[in-house]
Write a structure and sequence with these properties.
This protein is an alpha/beta fold. The protein contains eight helices and twelve strands. Helix 6 crosses helix 7. The longest helix is centred in the C-terminal third of the chain and has 15 residues, at 195-209.
Length: 232
């Protein structure tokens, strides 16, 4: 009985240059990849959520969102390998991309052989994980791709800081997040002593998401330690 063909690796190209996308598609498809494309950051994030690629090739110079912003948003919910492709060749650009969660950085123009090798390495270093682009707990739903929060099917308007805090808690749902962890991730390392920030913003989230903000069921205080987002 003949062996079936192996399942192709799904690759997502996020790049606004049609010539680059064409070159990458031809190269990747010739080596067994199934390729999807996006011409800007927002559509790239939507494609990533829908297609669930096994590797992403990301340009930094996109027409709507900076590539680092795309990378940061993608890393809010996915550990998919990301190889940055960019004409920016300064050390600080490479460091910034890697610090934001890129697995590798390839400067344009590049050789296809080197690119394929870098993709193989990035994929080998990634441990398979189960990920969800949407978090649900009771009536509350958080769509990481669209950055939309709803309660009972109705969209809830959050500030950027409220969203960042909720998304961080959702990524660690069921676990206690300490005051220091939350403050460092949301407000930065210089804010780790400012616990009053958390009290204010947790109160705002409870007002918007809890059935009764005075008796929270979703966002629980762990006295003297931090907060926990419950999976209801």
């Amino acid at each position: 009985m003949p062996e079936s063909n192996p399942k192709p690796t799904v690759a997502l190209i996020i790049d606004d240059e049609v010539q680059i996308r064409r070159l990458l598609r031809l190269t990747l498809e010739a080596h067994g990849y199934k390729v999807f494309e996006a011409v800007d950051g927002q559509s790239g994030l939507l494609e990533a959520g829908q297609r669930r690629p096994e590797v992403v090739l990301l340009d930094l110079g996109l027409p709507d969102l900076d590539g680092l912003t795309v990378l940061k948003r993608l890393r809010e919910w996915s550990r998919v390998p990301v190889v940055v492709l960019s004409v920016r060749d300064q050390e600080e650009d490479k460091i910034a991309a890697l610090d934001h969660g890129a697995d590798d950085y390839v400067t344009k123009p590049f050789s296809t052989g080197e690119l394929l090798a870098r993709l193989r390495v990035a994929q080998r270093h990634t441990q398979p994980t189960t990920e969800a682009a949407v978090f649900r707990s009771g009536e509350v739903e958080l769509d990481f791709v669209r950055r939309v929060v709803s309660r009972g099917g109705q969209e809830v308007k959050l500030t950027a800081t409220e969203y960042s805090l909720l998304a961080l808690l959702a990524r660690h749902a069921g676990r206690v997040m300490t005051h220091r962890q939350l403050l460092k991730e949301v407000w930065g390392p210089n804010a780790v002593e400012h616990t009053h920030y958390l009290r204010v913003y947790v109160a705002h989230l409870r007002e918007k998401l809890e059935a009764d903000a005075n008796q929270p069921q979703l966002l629980i205080t762990e006295a003297g330690v931090g907060y926990r987002l419950m999976e209801l």
